[in-house]
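subagent[fold] <- orchestrator: predict structure for attached chain, return tokens only, no commentary.
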Amino acid sequence: MGMTRVLFTCDLHGGESVWMKFLNSAEHYKADFILVGGDLTGKAVAPIVELKDGTHKTAPVFGKEHILRNREEIEKFVERCRGYGIYPYESSLEEISAIAKDKKLQNELFERMTRENMERWLNMADERVDPHTEIILTPGNDDSFIIDDVIERSERVMNGLDKVLMIGDYSMISMDWVNPTPWNSPRECPEKELEKKLKEQFAKVDKHDKLICNFHSPPFDSRLDTAPKLDKNFKPITAGGQIITEPVGSTSVRKVFEEYQPFLGLHGHIHESHGEARIGRTICINPGSEYAAGVLRGYVIDLTPEGMEKSWRVEG
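subagent[fold] -> orchestrator:
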């Protein structure tokens, strides 16, 4: 084959502003493949409750509660929430009062909103992206397992998990799980277990010199995994007015890269640690993330049968 162009991003966390920019960028960059490498979904629901006088009151969000006086104000609030990766939910005072008292109902609402929003996003992808561009989404550690089936059922979008996909002349395997974090996220596990999961994926391919590893966690101590060191209350530790940082990536990812030496590693997870690095001959990339600011961060990667012709970081 000739040249294959990939647009890669990650860690959108439900931010619809960056999702729409990502979809629109497919045509701008003339990408053959567009790929999101994990953490697709939002983290919170913002109830919008109708009051007796016909106005609506919101939960505290963006620093305060909001009174919305008409449908136009509601739609603007809904759009703003979605842009930040917050799921707006219009409801009655009675329903929200019941949900507030019941953890099970809270979880059910969040999962329903997560599923519905993922379905919306897939429809947007179908409508906005040229049919000649392949779309690949892979969940990350923060994503509920309920979205896997939603993506898998899509006729337009491919779920990268548990399969080998061809990206031009290159094969690609993916991993959503990460090493333990302070946040007890859905897809994290001890390093030994993660290493086993990784090796199960490597066993699906024969050639590693033309292998792309779409692994959500970056390798440990790769400069793509530098994050603030946290105290027992999950607050950044400072010294001399400066935040202390430490590597928090996966030792298992580093170990399998050192052993198998795949061609390319595509990573995310650590938003503030964007850049490129090498583990032996393996090129590793982390675009970083500024989803809450509505800034799309990604990489455009041009692949030829001989290797990577060029790559460059994009944001906007």
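orchestrator: received. Logging for downstream: The chain has a mean pLDDT of 97. The chain has two domains: 4-42+112-315, 45-110.
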